[in-house]
């Protein structure tokens, strides 16, 4: 019921203001008829004129609250000077005006106007009252009558400010959640894009090298050509498996067809080397320091960096020999992949653009995503070198060993 009434009042503000003004006018006239026993009754027509001016001031309460307070206060002072008793009925227009002042302005303005209105009303009732009404009715009563709407209006203003702050925080939180969700989606897309690039680039490069070698040896060495074609079949099968695993990341959690194969790591490095050697690239693997278990993220990153580096050698340094060196220290894993290709000529614009391809970019992004770094470039003595340092985080088994 109250909600419907509030909606109706909001939709028809002029009707509401008219009803309030008419009510205040009637109350003002009723208040002008109230006198104390033995006191002289003032004429009614001056009260009617004062009430008209006071109600006209009330109409300005929402658009010009300061003016409304000034007009209604002057009307109340005039009524007191003419001998009317300052009851709550005569002060009703001033109370409505100062209520809207408290709602629509700030605390400082409300305080100043409240003190000013009280001082003027008390001074007029004390100094200009011809009927000599009791002092309590001329001092305490106006103060109480004015403080009530000031307190009520200030409470409403603070409640509106609180609700506005709550809505602002809610909107900010909603925008933050949306931005965070978009950021996570972007990160996931980049991660899947890196996985697809590594899988497709590596296996297609190997398949291309194996097919080219098999075609070259088909006449001179049919037996080796058949072995190359067999290796090519294994390469394509491996590519399909990894593509299925990567695309499975896009499935829903409840999809029963999602692949369960774990992500590759350095434990599959021998298989990777065998696959690369089947394409004609000789790879030497050396390990320095005590091997330590890696976190899943670092393990996958290390494998993908080695895979991409060997793939680049297969594509850009045909006939070269590669060397993969793993160095374990107390807190870092250093991976260096080099080849003995020819000394690089000065890079032109096209070469520089190629050097900034997605392969090196993806390796750097992978290294940075786990807190590491990566450097890549041509060696002075010839060939190309990719070097990365990845952090080693303590694993549960190692922490148990350190615990006495």
Please count the beta strands (DSSP E, at least 2 residues each). 5
Query: C-alpha Rg, in Å?
Result: 44 Å
**Total of helices:** 13
How many angstroms does the end-to-end distance come to?
A: 72 Å
Tell me, briefly, the overall form: rod-shaped
| Sequence of secondary-structure elements | HHHHHHHHHEHEEHHEEH
Structural class: alpha+beta
Work out the count of structural domains: 2
Helix content: 55-70%
Uncertain residue ranges: 346-356, 399-404
Q: Kindly report the average pLDDT value.
A: 78
Largest sheet: 5 strands, mixed
Tag the structure with descriptive keywords.
13 helices, five-stranded mixed beta sheet, 9% strand
Would you kindly provide a written description of the structure presented here, covering whatever features stand out?
With 404 residues, the chain is of the alpha+beta class. It has 2 domains: 2-172, no CATH class; 262-404, Heat Shock Protein 90 (2-Layer Sandwich). Helix content is 65%, strand content 9%. The protein has helices at 2-11, 13-32, 44-58, 65-81, 92-104, 107-127, 135-217, 222-247, 269-277, 296-316, 349-355, 358-369, 396-402; strands at 282-288, 321-328, 332-339, 373-378, 384-391. It has a 5-stranded mixed beta sheet, with helices on one face. It is rod-shaped. Residues 346-356 and 399-404 have low confidence and may be disordered.
């Amino acid at each position: 019921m109250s909600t419907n009434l509030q909606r109706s009042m909001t939709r028809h503000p002029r009707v509401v203001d008219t009803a309030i003004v008419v009510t205040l006018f009637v109350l003002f006239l009723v208040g002008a008829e109230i006198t104390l026993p033995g006191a002289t009754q003032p004429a009614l027509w001056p009260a009617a004129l004062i009430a008209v001016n006071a109600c006209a001031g009330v109409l300005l309460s929402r658009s010009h609250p300061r003016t409304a307070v000034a007009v209604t206060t002057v009307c109340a002072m005039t009524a007191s000077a003419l001998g009317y008793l300052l009851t709550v009925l005569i002060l009703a227009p001033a109370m409505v005006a100062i209520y809207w002042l408290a709602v629509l302005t700030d605390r400082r303005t409300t305080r100043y106007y409240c003190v000013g209105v009280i001082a003027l009303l008390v001074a007029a009732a004390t100094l200009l009252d011809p009927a000599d009404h009791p002092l309590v009715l001329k001092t305490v009563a106006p103060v109480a009558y004015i403080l009530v709407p000031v307190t009520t209006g200030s409470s409403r203003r603070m409640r509106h400010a609180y609700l506005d702050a709550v809505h602002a925080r809610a909107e900010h939180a909603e925008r933050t959640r949306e931005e965070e969700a978009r950021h996570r989606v972007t990160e996931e897309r980049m991660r899947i894009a890196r996985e697809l690039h590594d899988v497709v680039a590596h296996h297609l490069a190997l398949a291309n090298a194996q097919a080219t070698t098999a075609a070259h040896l088909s006449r001179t060495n049919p037996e080796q050509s058949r072995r190359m074609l067999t290796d090519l079949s294994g390469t394509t099968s491996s590519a399909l498996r990894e593509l299925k695993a990567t695309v499975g990341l896009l499935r829903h959690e409840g999809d029963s067809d999602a692949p369960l194969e774990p992500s590759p790591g350095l434990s599959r490095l021998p298989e990777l080397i065998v696959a690369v050697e089947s394409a004609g690239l000789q790879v030497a693997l050396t390990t320095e320091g005590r091997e330590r278990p890696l976190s899943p993220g670092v393990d996958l990153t290390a494998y993908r960096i080695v895979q991409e580096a060997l793939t680049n050698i297969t594509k850009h340094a045909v006939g070269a020999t590669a060397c993969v060196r793993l160095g374990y220290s107390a807190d870092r894993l250093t991976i260096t992949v080099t080849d003995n290709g020819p000394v690089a000529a000065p890079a032109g614009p096209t070469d520089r653009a190629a050097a900034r391809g997605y392969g090196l970019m993806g390796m750097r992004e992978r290294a940075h995503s786990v807190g590491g770094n990566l450097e890549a470039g041509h060696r002075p003595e010839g060939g190309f070198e990719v070097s990365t340092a990845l952090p080693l985080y303590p694993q549960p088994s190692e922490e148990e060993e350190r615990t006495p």
